[in-house]
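Fill-in record for tRNA(Ile)-lysidine synthase.
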Amino acid sequence: MEVDLTHTSEIITALRPYLYQERSIMVAFSGGIDSTVLLHALVQLRSDYALQLSAIYIHHGISQHADQWAQHCQQVCQQWHVPLHICKVQIDLSSNIEAQARTARYHAISQQLQPNQVLMTAQHLNDQSETFLLALKRGSGPTGLSAMPAISPFASSYLIRPLLGISRRAIEIYAGIHQLPWIEDESNQDTRYDRNFLRLKVLPEINQRWPQFNQMVARSAELCAEETQLIAELIQEQLQHCLTPEKQLYLQPLLAMSDIKRNAILRAWFKLHHVDMPSRQQLTLLWQTVALARDDANPIFTLQQKIIRRYQRTLYLLPNSPSLRDTILPWDMLSPLILPDDLGQLALSPSMPAGLRAPRANEQVTIRFQAQGRFTIVNRLGSRTIKKLWQELGVPPWMRNRIPLLYYNETLISAVGVFTTLEGQGSDLTVIHTV
């Protein structure tokens, strides 16, 4: 701990540019050699930059040694006077463990990251090559081949990877000079995982033939990132012309564009909504099955945890919400009613002009999300089917089973905030819906 390589260490030099502005840093600490070296180097620089350091260990519970690793990390952090958070996460071992572990890890970290604190991780030059080749295997374009950026938005802060230009060999030398203790995850030797297969079987052969391969891959990733940024800048103005005030997408301008340009606009739209990039095949299917569907269709396209729908020549990106069609909620009207699926609450308003009659003694009040039949509503002549009413009032199909419907017994009184039926017209009370 007393060895001072501040002016000579490649790793210390790589860290310095990131410390002039960042003072509060959380390190993703697995106890492996990479994160151990990163944390140690930051400890060496702590007094120089008045750093507030903490570390986080994610306990996946996959390995039988996970408890021992957590204890090792605790001991190291105690020795180096770094506060450590240990977070346990649950992983479904039946499918894609790598992806699940990564998602769970970053979600847990985002919950622990404090305001004005940045996250630092220890990915290095060799990791960058692996990420690039994995993206190449998936058939990714320039965005995917950009691999890992040194700085990227994360939670409400930033994720910084200060060692992306540092080779695995430099990390091993640093660890040896400082006699650092680290753990070896036995799963890192399991070539059933794609990343391990590249690391253990493929890249050693490539690097033996071309020793500068990792540096050249990093250069290609950097060029792909620059191209992606240039496309984003060039497309931004046209994207703004295609957006509705609610950030949905007008179809009309897209119809006159080439496939390549339209796909770039669609990708920029997904990025705006923080949705992972769809494949080219998915974009083609989306356009054919949703945008170009016949006018009377109600097409739906599922993408990850979102759905894309078309309504009145506009594409909508929406959460994939559960159906509430069969939901019936009793309500005493004495206290606010909490609605399901984050739809807010209903309450009586003491200040707004009354527009509903009060329920009679023999009428039970319920809230539902489905109606059938014909209804006559206030300020409109003649009865209409509920579907026709929704259409005339401009309510999109996916909202029609998410608007709270006030019933007295089996009589529809009001679609709260949208319309009141003649059977519900009165001057006793007003129901308000707040989200």
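KEY FINDING: The CA atoms of residues 377 and 422 lie 5 Å apart.
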